[in-house]
């Protein structure tokens, strides 16, 4: 009895302390208002984890990056190496390179942290890229998420700049070659190119200021912008309803899934530790960027088979494929073979990414809110454009290693370059047409399944003596998913108010191109209730 009374008193004191703490916090913070946030529904699907992988890779980047700043010396002052790596003893190098070698060999755990940082950077950029592809192919960039799409593309651009800046900091022969190429790109800009190069490098190449300036960008400005945009991106994800795949009970007016606390937070925390663990294992067993093997940078030397990280490989490929072409205007030489592939082409590519949600809305006339994900096959033109863009990028990426490919497969480098040039022109439109036909064929097949049912493989003989295959009806969930897609109508040729006749005809033509090929399904079924065990918001 005495023990029970003590337990009761202890429980009462604990309840009083908890209530007092909550009341104290609620008087100073929006604690009670956060209860609804903790019950926010998050739909479940493996593709939704791509953004979380990017987020947690960014967290690993921040943690490892802060540790590396304690030992890195961002200086281009010349020193003589006297560390523990014997092949470099007595060689002249910059302090930036020597400190990186010291981190790798003389700081306990330094090499592992360096490699974890590098692997995290690659995974971060890869996850952002694949996440953007998921958003594009499922139409999750449409209203009300256009701003989040713009933020995502900006994050990708900043991540590219951050990756290149960090890749260049060790001042080794490979990264120095990349900086040399970057300086050539700056010089190709008409009129102001020389001034841009002098400003960035602090004088004639290689100057003395580029590493300290890149260091400031890499650890302060770019991470600050990335952190701010990631925070804004997450706030908008919370504020707007999460997209979801069409299933019974899931509509454009709700979000069905697991509550944020405790299910979603538990799963997300487990994913963080998985990402952290995989990056740690990669850092321990997979060598990356062995700068001691490249040696310190010297402007008069270029290492054989120099290849940048994959995310700037498309720029390398575009430079290698562009034929030599230059003109002189008013005493200024315009290097088109550098300006077009390295300045104009990336600018056009990212301008298209920024503008696409608004272009599609203008072409299709679709101003409705969309919270259900499109299946890629249900938007053949958009899917075809995405696949064509991927093929375009893949050709440039492969062309960035044409010398390695020619050496490994013992083929002519000149022949391989022309193959890539022709592929860059022909492969994207072929990929678009094939992808569009495949999407339409898949939709036609689904219409047949709705009408006839699923094939069973069983044959029966008819009274006339022939044989027919028996079919079984699709289950309710499959029928709902197949019937839930909408088939927009192409816009009428008439121009809206305030729009010229020529613009109206162009808009109608593009709309017919988008939605002219149609495979209509049956009418959408009534909306069933969400499955049990899931939260609806």
From TrEMBL:
Predominant place of localization: membrane
PANTHER family reported in the protein's UniProt record: CYTOCHROME B
Swiss-Prot/TrEMBL cofactor(s): heme
Sequence segments annotated as region (Disordered): 517-537
Domain named Cytochrome b/b6 N-terminal region profile: residues: 21-246
Record flagged with keyword Amino-acid biosynthesis: no
Membrane topology (UniProt): Multi-pass membrane protein
Name by which UniProt lists this protein: Cytochrome bc1 complex cytochrome b subunit
InterPro entries attached to this UniProt entry: Cyt_b/b6_N (IPR005797), Cytb/b6-like_sf (IPR027387), Di-haem_cyt_TM (IPR016174)
Places the protein is found: Cell membrane
Enzyme Commission number(s) of this protein: 7.1.1.8
Catalytic activity, as annotated: a quinol + 2 Fe(III)-[cytochrome c](out) = a quinone + 2 Fe(II)-[cytochrome c](out) + 2 H(+)(out)
Entry's Gene Ontology molecular function annotations: metal ion binding; oxidoreductase activity; quinol-cytochrome-c reductase activity
Transmembrane feature ranges: 53-72, 118-137, 149-169, 181-203, 215-240, 270-292, 334-356, 385-409, 415-435
Keywords assigned by UniProt, alphabetized: Cell membrane, Electron transport, Heme, Iron, Membrane, Metal-binding, Respiratory chain, Translocase, Transmembrane, Transmembrane helix, Transport
Pfam families: Cytochrom_B_N_2
A GO CC term attached to the entry: plasma membrane
Keyword Cell membrane: yes
GO biological process: respiratory electron transport chain
Enzyme class per UniProt: translocase
